[in-house]
Structure formats: C-alpha cells, structure tokens
Design a protein that fits this description.
The complex is a heterodimer. Chain A is an alpha+beta fold. Chain A has helices at about 15-20, 75-85, 125-135, 140-150, 165-180, 195-215, 225-230, 250-255, 260-265, and strands spanning about 35-45, 50-60, 65-70, 90-95, 100, 110-115, 185-190, 215-220, 235-240, 240-245, 270-275, 285-290, 295-300, 310-315, 320, 340-350, 350-360, 365-370, 380-385, 395. In chain A, the strands form 4 sheets. Chain A has a 6-stranded mixed beta sheet with strand order 6-7-8-3-9-10, sandwiched between helices. In chain A, helix 3 (about 125-135) runs parallel beside helix 5 (about 165-180). In chain A, about 45% of the residues are buried. Chain B is mainly alpha-helical. Chain B has one domain (about 80-305): MetI-like fold. Chain B is about 75% helix and about 0% strand. In chain B, helix 3 packs across helix 7 (about 180-205) and helix 7 packs antiparallel against helix 10. The radius of gyration of chain B is 25 Å and the shape is globular. Mean pLDDT of chain B is about 85; it is low at about 1-20. The chains are: A alpha+beta, B mainly alpha. At the A-B interface, strand 6, helix 3 and helix 5 of A face helix 1, helix 8 and helix 9 of B.
C-alpha cells in the first residue's frame, strides 16, 4: 500500500497552476470550474425492465454530487448515460448548456473513473494516464502526465504496469487518468468499492481534496451512504430507477421525505398513526395517534398532514432514562412524544450503545445513546423514551415503513 | 485482503509457494509434479527426441558402390546437405513463401472472424456457438476430401472462374486450376481454423470495460481497436500465426492436389517423394532436418520480435 498524503505542501498542488492562463495548450478544452450537468426527463428502458425512469436532475458547475442507492437502483446506468456508454431511451442530457445526448462517448467532455479501474494492462502507468491527452493531441502531454502523476503521488511508479501496483495505487492511476484531461465533469463509478475500509476512508478525503483543487464537477456513484454523506456537497438518493430525494446530505438525513430515504440513509423508527389534531388547520404542530400513543410532528416537517401518516424519529434523537426518572430535553407538552417500554437488546459499539426497546403498540424502537459515562441499560430494564417534536418527521402513511431497510 | 487486484494474485501465489517451501511439503509436491510430467517426457523422448537423432544419423548415410536402390550404410557424409540444398532450394523457398502468404491471408480473414464471434457477439451465446461449430464443422470431413473439393471449386468450368471471367476480373484464357494461387488458397482454407481459434480464445477474455474506458478517453472505435484490442490480442495472433505457418510450410497435400509439377512444388512433396518413391533416405532426412532447423530459426526470430515477456 502506498503512503497516502494527508497534507500536501502548497507548491506541489497543481490545482493552482491548472487555472493559470497559458497553462492549457491551444485547442485544449477549457474546463476551469467544470460544467453544469442537466438531465431532462432522461429514461432508460432495457428489454425487460426500466433501469431509469423519467429523471430530472441539475448539478451546478463545480459541485461534488453523489448518486446514492442500493445495487440495481439505476445510479450506474444514469452515470453511464452521462458518459455516453448507454443511450437514453428518452430525454436529453446537457453539459455546460450543450446538448450531448447524441454524442458518442469519445466526443463528450466527460471522463469516468471505473469501478474496476479498467486500466490498460499492456500499458505502463504513464501510458495509461497519457492516453486521453494523446488521443486529443494535447501538445504538452508529457508534462501534464507527469504533473498529474505527482498529484496522485505515483510519479515514482510511472513505468510500472498496472498489474504491479496495489489496489490503492491502481485506483489513483484511474483517477489521474480521468483528471488529467480536465473534463468538464468527472464521473466516479464506485471508485473506492474495491478498497478496504481504512484505505477507503483515506481516499475519500483525498478525493475531496483533489476535487477542491481542480474545481471540476464530480458525480460520484456509490451505495455507501457514509461515503456519499461525508464527501458530497449535495446528493440524490435513488431507488428502483427513480430519484427519491435530492439535497444536502444533512438535509436529507434530518428531513427525509420518503420511507426509503428514512431507512436507507441512516436508520429511522417509523411509527404508523392517524392525525388527530391540527390536520386541516394552520396549527404548527400535528398530533398523531399511534396505537394510543400521542406523537407530535411539526406541520412543515410532514409530507402529509391528514389521515394515515408515518411518524419518524432517528434513534440518536431519542432520550432514554430508567422508568420513572425525569426525561429532559423533550417536549414539555404533557404526555406527547413520551412512551414507555422494555429494553430487549443492547449492543455496545464503543462510541455509542445501540438499544432495542419494545414499546407496546409501536413495536421495537431503536435508540442510540452516546457513551458519556452513564451506566448501560440491561435487557429487561423498564425505560421511558422521549424526543423533541422538532426532530420528528412525518411521511405519507401509505408508504411501506420497511422500505429501504437493509438494502445495500 | 478484500480487494481483488490482478497484481496481487501473482504476489499471493508467490507467498503460497514460499509458504509451501517452508513447511517441507514442497519436496513431496515437487516429486509428485515430476511424476505427473513423467509419462509425457518419456513419450517425447521415445517418439520425438530419439527419432530426431535417427533422422540426423540417416541424413549422413551414404550409398555404397553397387548397392541396390534404397540401400545405405552409416557414414558422416555432410555433403548430402549441400547436394539437397543445391537441388531443392527453390522448393524450400517456395514452401516458406506459400506458408507466409497463407498465414497472412489467414490472419486477414481470420482476425475479423474471431473478433466478430468473441467481441461483437458477446453475450449472444447461441450465435457464438453456432459460428464456432460452423468454423470447426469442416473437420468432420477428411482433409484430403475437402482439398479435392477445392479442385472442383477452382476448376475452369467451375462457378467461381466463370463468374470472375464474366465480371472481367480474370482474363478469358486464364485458369486457377493447378496454379500457385490454388495451392495458397487451399493452404489458407485448411489452416484458417488454426488461426481463428487462438485469436478467438484471446479476444474472448478481453475485458469489455477496457474498450469502454478507451472510448471514454476520447478514443474512436478505430483508435480503441488499434491501441487496446489489437495489442492485447497479440498473444492470440502469435499463437495463430505459428499454428498456421509451421504446418503450412511442411504441408504437401495442398500442393500435391491443387498444384502442378512445374512451379508449385513444395518441400513436403519433395521429401515425400524421396522417402516413398525414390527411396533416397539420406536426402529426405537431410531435407527434413533443414526444414526443421529453418522453421526453428524463423520462429525464434519471430517470437523474439513480437512476443513480450509477459505475453508469451
């Protein structure tokens, strides 16, 4: 495994040089800041199934955007349509305002970092990185190749064959091979999928740093929610060929709009109930009866405000105390968002402890407690749970409360 | 180790070998290994190495004065080589020329076939299978019979010649039968599968994603073929050309059936007639030996030039 830089001295950061005028040879495609990507009603139908249903998506120039979803959700197909490796069945794709829908991949200002890296085995590292530049007859291809090999800290291995490199090194060759062309958009198809956990975390910050340096639009496809949330400026969660929700990672996490997003992105307790108060009016708080429990949700945090709803609360937002003890931090409102239950399972994970608590009528709720030195609860302990209505969210009651649960 | 990387597998194998050596079972394993190659080695020794020495010895025999036809005595007559080389160098050269032409034609015809089956029809197993069966199907009839059939195809009154003449692609008085064109055509036809199959096997393993990566990196279809597909398929081409050229240069059936006895004679025919009809055993043996050594030299030069360390 090569040593990955955690810090890079300013003079070795080529990103600053890249923007310098006169650096790019004549006839080279300008790519400063990347370009905006717009998908309009893009659809992909394979013989027997719709891989991507009519999708609209706009990614502004220079953004680090993540497409997150379980395998088979259509995220890779979407990426491949942008790359020109698949033809959309319908819809249009614009890059920097130019319609590229009918352009073959080799004419698009886009490069891809493939999941398998797809490095050319018969070429050296240097030849791999220079491939795109030479096809476009960039005059200074030698200098640029050298420069980007330095960016990914592989210049000392320039004459090796891909087979002689470690996984992490191959990954960086693949990255340099795409970046060196300064495409308007760099597409990353699960680029870290083949790396082990520790290396993956390192490469995540590395990728983020490089993106900030080169300032290109990055579209990153992944099924790893932590990876998407920690790297992306904005992200889209995809499921069954559709985008479920788009937004900043923290917004998606704090206010999921579908049961799938609530379950796929982190974990959620979803409780089915009926709106009993505030449904038709302007009351900022909705009250929901869930099997006799009174739950409160802010109106502006609820997808539907009448009838059957799902009330959601993240496990770490729940306060838990032994039965009878005072619960603070929760809504003072008598009896709302307060339930009693019995601990059924305790999993100590170090930073926090994950509890399962059986609540009559609501089933098992998950509760994450930070380990700040309190005594752990034990299975069988009677506990009281409470949470702030401001943390709860309301979903359409017709959705499957288990959607996205355990999807990978 | 979660990542599956090509480079690592090799290194891992190295580690395993090292581990095997360390735990002492390697010696036993080594003995078992020799045991497994044993029968093959013995077979080669008895039916290849020893005959080669016999051949070499025979090539130096001389005919004693007054001996009957086919009667020779052991000697070290190196002059035999000068005699046969002086007498048959045109046939020897012609053999290599015909074999080279046939090899080039096989490559030109065979590479696209292999490419079509292995790359273009990837994922369509039925059509691939069908084409492969069609490619091999001629083997179900006899080599000699198929070559005889070419005689009919190239005959003056045959469809092909008539059509070419009608289209004025061939002069009226000309003929294909019993010409070097016919011999090379027969060689090309007969050895085509030996060219296609190794190239097919190689291209079949070609990672399709490399082609996508090439297109993604601004390579047109032609560029991707030239810079990725073709270089990666070199080992297949190398194997195919050797499997075609070597037997073709020693072939005598095609020249015997499709050629004439003026300007199409190949060295295989000469050796055949010396052994079987004239009973000039030393001459035939000397020619065989010359043929073998020449092929060996040519192949070595060729592999040195085109075969790279990690490809062959």
């Amino acid at each position: 495994m090569g040593q990955l830089p955690t810090t890079t001295s300013p003079e070795s950061i080529p990103g600053t040089d890249l923007a310098a005028p006169g650096h790019q040879p004549a006839g080279d495609r300008p790519a400063a800041g990347g370009a905006e990507l717009v998908l309009h009603r893009v659809r992909k139908q394979f013989a027997d199934f719709a891989a991507v249903q009519a999708t609209d998506l706009t990614v502004p120039a220079g953004e680090f955007f993540a497409l997150l979803g379980p395998s088979g959700c259509g995220k890779t197909t979407t990426l491949r349509m942008v790359a020109g490796l698949e033809t959309p069945t319908a819809g249009s794709i614009r890059i920097g305002g130019r319609d590229v829908t009918s352009l073959p991949s080799y004419k698009r200002p886009v490069n891809t970092v493939f999941q398998s890296y797809a490095l050319f085995p018969h070429m050296t590292v240097k030849e791999n990185v220079a491939f795109g530049l030479r096809r476009r007859r960039v005059r200074d291809w030698r200098g640029r190749t050298e420069e980007f090999l330095r960016l990914v800290e592989l210049h000392h291995l320039a004459d090796r064959r891909p087979a002689q490199l470690s996984g992490g090194q191959q990954q960086r060759v693949a990255l340099a091979r795409g970046l060196v062309n300064q495409p308007e958009i760099l597409l990353l198809d699960e680029p870290l999928g083949a790396l082990d956990m520790k290396l993956r975390r390192q490469m995540q910050s590395e990728l983020k740093r490089i993106q900030a340096e080169v300032g290109l639009t990055f579209i990153h496809v992944t099924h790893d929610q932590e990876e998407a949330m920690s790297m992306a400026d904005r992200m889209a969660v995809m499921n069954k060929g559709r985008i479920e929700q788009i937004g900043r990672p923290e917004d998606l996490y704090h206010l999921p709009r579908t049961a799938f997003v609530a379950n796929f992105l982190g974990r959620s307790n979803l409780m089915a109930g009926t709106v009993t108060r505030g449904g038709g009016g302007t009351d900022p708080l909705l009250e929901v009866n869930a099997s006799g429990h009174r739950l409160a949700v802010h109106r502006d945090r609820a997808v539907s405000t009448t009838g059957e709803v799902l009330v959601g609360i993240r496990p770490e937002k729940i306060h838990m105390r032994p039965a009878g003890a005072r619960l603070d931090g929760a809504t003072a409102d008598g009896g709302v968002n307060r339930v009693a239950g019995t601990v059924t399972d305790v999993a100590f994970t170090g930073v926090s402890t994950e509890y399962r608590v059986e609540v009559p009528g609501l089933g098992e709720l998950g509760v994450f407690a930070q380990n700040r030195g309190e005594d752990l609860m034990r299975p069988g302990d009677a506990v009281g749970l409470a949470w702030d209505a401001a943390h709860a969210f309301g979903l359409d009651g017709r959705q499957d409360a288990a959607a996205g649960d355990g999807a990978v | 180790m979660t990542s599956r990387v090509a480079g690592r597998s090799g290194r891992q194998a190295g580690f395993e070998r090292a581990a095997a050596l360390a735990d002492g079972t390697a010696q036993a394993r080594g003995r078992a290994g020799y045991g497994l190659v044993g029968p093959g080695l013995v077979y080669l020794l008895v039916f290849f190495v020893l005959p080669v020495f016999t051949l070499l010895a025979t090539s130096l025999y001389v005919k004693p004065p007054g001996a009957e036809v086919g009667q020779f005595v052991p000697a070290l007559e190196f002059g035999n080589y000068a005699v046969v080389l002086g007498g048959y160098w045109p046939e020897l050269l012609r053999s290599f020329g015909f074999a080279l032409l046939a090899t080039v034609l096989c490559l030109v015809i065979g590479y696209p076939m292999a490419y079509l089956i292995a790359v273009r029809l990837r994922g369509r197993a039925f059509v691939q299978g069908l084409l492969l069966v069609l490619l091999i199907a001629p083997f179900f009839t006899s080599f000699v019979l198929r070559t005889q059939a070419w005689k009919q195809i190239l005959a003056d009154e045959g469809f092909l010649v008539q059509a070419l003449k009608t289209l004025h692609l061939m002069p009226q008085g000309a003929s294909l039968a019993a010409t070097s064109v016919a011999v090379v055509a027969g060689l090309t036809y007969n050895f085509l599968p030996f060219m296609v199959l190794p190239i097919y096997a190689n291209l079949q393993a070609l990672d399709h994603r490399l082609l996508e990566a090439g297109r993604d990196l601004y390579g047109s279809d032609l560029t991707v073929f030239r810079t990725i597909t073709l270089p990666i398929s070199v080992p297949g081409v190398l194997a195919g050309t050797l499997l075609t050229f070597i037997p073709a240069s020693g072939d005598f059936v095609n020249a015997a059936i499709l050629g004439n006895n003026r300007n199409t004679t190949m060295i295989g025919q000469v050796i055949d007639s010396k052994f079987m009809r004239v009973l000039d055993y030393p001459g035939a043996a000397a020619l065989s030996f010359i043929l073998m050594v020449t092929i060996l030299v040519l192949v070595t030069l060729y592999v040195r030039r085109f075969g790279t360390r990690d490809l062959v």
